[in-house]
Amino acid sequence: MSQHPAHSQNHRHPDEPTLDEIERALKGADFPMTKEKFISLAKNNGADGEILAVLEKMNSRHFDSTDAVLREASRAE
Questions:
Q1: Which end of the chain is more exposed for a tag (fewer CB within 10 A), N or C?
Q2: What are the residue ranges spanned by the domains of the chain?
Q3: What's the CA gap between 40 and 75, in Å, rounded?
Q4: Distances 62 to 14, 39, 72, 74 between C-alpha atoms, Å
């Protein structure tokens, strides 16, 4: 039996990356970082197109932690 949508852990489209996947793409980040720098890092870490698309949608600013990036990424999806 399928789970009711209200009870699912998240409401992401199956092609959207999870926050864990985004966090892995940011491995080795040296904060604070600009959006452009962590997108470059994600590319160097082998991030796929879906992860890069989410990162590109984010507002441009400086980020002081992985948690700050993940919070903004969850809003951008």
A1: N
A2: 33-77
A3: 20
A4: 29, 12, 11, 16
Alpha-carbon dihedral sign for residues 6, 11, 13, 19 = negative
What SS3 class is residue 25?
Answer: helix
Cβ distance 68 to 29 under 8 Å?
no
Specify whether the backbone of 30 is left (phi greater than 0), alpha (psi in -120 to 50) or beta: beta
For residue range 18-75, list pLDDT tens digits in order.
Answer: 999 999 999 999 999 999 999 999 999 999 999 999 999 998 889 999 999 999 999 8
Task: Give the position of tokens 């002081």.
Answer: 64
Query: How many other C-beta atoms lie within 10 A of the C-beta of residue 50?
Result: 15
- Tokens of residue 13, six digits: 């489209």
DSSP 5: G
pTM equals 0.77
